[in-house]
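Prompt: For my understanding, could you write out one protein's sequence and backbone structure tokens?
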Amino acid sequence: MYFLYDIIYSVAFLILSPRFLFDAVFNGKYAAGFKQRLGFVPRLGAGARKVIWIHCVSVGEVNAARPLLTQIKTDFPDARLVISTTTRTGRKMAETIFAGVAHSIIYFPFDWRSTVRRSLSRIKPNVVLLMETEIWPNFIRETNKQKARIGIVNGRLSARSYKRLGHAKRFIRRVLGYLDLALMQEKADATRIMSLGLRASKVRVTGNLKFDHDIDSAETALTEEFRERFGITSDAPLIVAASTHSPEEQWLVEAFKELFKTSEKLPRLLIAPRHPERFAEVAEIVKRTGFSWVRRSEKPSTRDKSAEIILLDSIGELRAAYPLAEVAFVGGSLIPHGGQSIYEPAAAGRPIVTGPHTENFESAVAEFLDREALIQIRPANDKEIVPKLVEALSRILADSYERNLLGSNALKVMDNNRGAVVQTLEFLRPILR
């Protein structure tokens, strides 16, 4: 079965290779770190200190890992932490927030045995932790062969992923057999991974690490920097459009035009695109609106305080913008993408609006809705999106009671679900020791 997997993986890589080549020429998203993904990562060097390798796919997993890694570093100060990501955005985020924590930040290897072995031989991990159920058969098997302990942390297995993996259930059972531990977010996730063949004795439910969100001093300082630089006040309420995808920015600026005409207090809009390679594209969209606008990446100027639209074209700074928002729209939800994280604006106590496509956070969104901690618009077609956005945003901006209630309830949901870090470390400590 592994031989067949290698063939399928290699064929898929060849099919996608034009995309790698195109990207290498134009923006470097998929080609970024190509050499490291072939296993040529920096050697960690020999030593008696334990090496803990944590793999985070992209920004969401990096953010989720923050409280856990902070606690691991506190409890095991002598351990060397290696962080790997798959995406360039995730790597830049990791470099920003784990600068004083991680010993090394690398790209995760392609899942061929040769590249995996090369990476493992250079890192020599004692423990490998995979965030949110990253199942790479060769990597998991080769890690086990190297006598390193390997586990899934903050595991999530959606019904769709379970169905997809179920087509190769016998093979997946063999792969999962190499795991030492799987710490899953919810009972449903645990049930699904056991149904795929992982022994129940290796599975635990520990909750979602994203609820254990903490705001550090650096973020607080950055929030105040934003407040001062851009002149953020309640007299001109700020709408934060977070982690947006195409064509959400176009819909948002159209909704903003309507709000600008009808709102008692003239609002301002901060747009934070999900992918850095789209910053220039979104800048062109904003430029065509006729509103005054500025980019975060530009040098501070007198225009900053009066700009009607702010483009947050930076990485790792969105969390610091949330406390300034009167309302936060979370992107990836007006299109069939599955939605982006609602946890960060909730931790800031901000009222949240999403679109209908939130499958990536299905259980969390359900709880937020049940607790009156979120507004989810449900347009039936694209023509309804802008009017529905206008309706939801204008209602929140006009009603301070509802605005405060939504934000307060969102924060309560976060506080009521805290504790995943403690639960996770309870089961990890025997492995980490």
